[in-house]
Amino acid sequence: MLTLQGLEKRFGALAALSGIDLEVPAGEILGIIGPNGSGKTTLLNAVTGVYPPSAGRIAFGGADITGWKGHRIARLGLARTFQNIRLFPTMTVFQNVWAAQHARTPGGLLGLLRSRPRPGGGDTRRVEAALEQVGLLASREVLARHLPLPARRRLEIARALVVDARLVLLDEPAGGMTPAETADMARVIREVVAPGRTCVVIEHKMALITGVCTRLCVLDFGRKIAEGHPDEVLDRAEVREVYLGGVDASDA
Ligand SMILES: Nc1ncnc2c1ncn2[C@@H]1O[C@H](COP(=O)(O)OP(=O)(O)OP(=O)(O)O)[C@@H](O)[C@H]1O
Ligand SMILES: [Mg+2]
After folding, report:
1. Would you put residue 67 in left (φ > 0), alpha (ψ -120 to 50) or beta?
2. Residue 47 phi/psi, 5° resolution?
3. How far is the CA of 37 from the centre of ligand 2 (A)?
4. Does residue 11 line the site of ligand 1, with CB under 6 A?
5. Which of the ligands is closest to the CA of residue 51?
6. Whose CA is nearest to atom 18 of ligand 1?
7. pLDDT for residue 171 is more than 50
8. What is the mean pLDDT of residues 12-41?
9. What are the residue ranges spanned by the domains of the chain?
10. Which residue of 122, 138, 158, 188 could cross-link 130, Cys pair, CB 3.0 to 4.6 Å?
């Protein structure tokens, strides 16, 4: 589904990513962990076309997408959520998902402005189905900025669900959450996002990683230092060393 070959991203003198080789087969839930600043978000940004890689290749679903712009990659069936949640705060829950659906249609933003949700229309039903799946249908008329954090993160996920993405990239979906909220997010990823899709999940919270991921990749200073089954990877000496003092009990 996703292949990275020798992926490199430099910001001036800083090598945020170097020599990353990674295969994500269809149906996998790959976890990516690593200390702050190790390049996790940069990897997602490179894959989603926020900026072109400095070197290396990126292939998605068989297409070489290296250097492609984000909207073009998105149209191939790739969706993401953001570490710093990006929603339309003054729009309702329904409108946020509606806008995600129409941002991808040929009319783009203009089409969105002209389009009107019709009760019972196919587009409306798709938005309602996505909201139902993340447990937000009852909050459809609430403004996004009035939602508590866990609900805002579920709303971002609904935006990814409504566009029929084959690959969904989640950047710290349980960031800032309590253990109970994290467990709920793990369930949403396992039961709602993952079926029929391939997922890449960046997270610091080990409860989420070990609860949902089928494979784990560890980054440190922009390099991949370990990869394999989550339990086995977390047991390795070099991984424990990277995290020594980095993961406290409240993170676990
Ligand atoms: N647009 C940018 N311009 C310059 N430097 C950047 C940019 N984006 C990221 N960096 C740098 O690249 C490195 C990797 O950052 P990145 O955000 O990918 O880390 P991360 O693993 O996601 O960290 P965190 O766990 O804190 O989210 C950091 O040193 C960061 O300061
Ligand atoms: Mg990050």
Report:
1. left
2. -65, -35
3. 7
4. yes
5. 1
6. 39
7. yes
8. 96
9. 1-77+165-252, 89-163
10. 158
